[in-house]
Amino acid sequence: MTSCIFCQIVSGDAQASIVYEDDLVMAFMDINQPNPYKTLVIPRPHRETIYDLDDELAAALFRATVKIARAIRAASGCDGLNIIQSNGPAAQQDVFHFHLHLLPRFRDDNIILRWDFAQSDRATLDRFASDIRNHLT
Ligand SMILES: [Zn+2]
Fold first, then answer.
1. What CA–CA distance (Å, rounded) separates 7 from 98?
2. What's the 28 CA to ligand 1 centre distance in angstroms?
3. What pLDDT was estimated at residue 85?
4. What's the 63 CA to ligand 1 centre distance in angstroms?
5. Has residue 50 got a pLDDT over 60?
6. Which residues are catalytic?
7. Which fold has domain 5-110+117-130?
8. In the prediction, which pLDDT does 43 show?
9. Which residues are in the CB-under-5-Å shell of ion ligand 1?
10. Fewest CB atoms less than 10 Å from the CB: which of 9, 19, 24, 85?
11. Is the CB of residue 44 less than 8 Å from the CB of residue 10?
12. 38 CA to middle of ligand 1, Å?
């Protein structure tokens, strides 16, 4: 089995609360929910960095990201959405599979991340994922 946790989610070997999937892209709830409905979007094929995406994959990722962003807004009532790409050793992360963080921001937030968060349980993540899926158009 691959050691990449995101590839394990793509293959179904690791559990995740799935928000969206098509032939090239997958989205699922981040275990860490500093702001509710924080979602990860990834290419299905393993690509380490943004520089490794070909044009087709890049277009598919952004198309899906826009669709999911609208659904997050509809589901959560967020007032804004930060999209963050940070991966690789320079970001001090340990998953080297390109991913976008879709991070809802609410009116009272004057910072990007609330830091008083804990890892969410599966039932909470499943509920967030279901809310977003119900708003996909
Ligand atoms: Zn991977």
1. 11
2. 14
3. 87
4. 20
5. yes
6. 99
7. HIT family, subunit A (3.30.428)
8. 97
9. 4, 6-7, 46, 97
10. 85
11. yes
12. 20
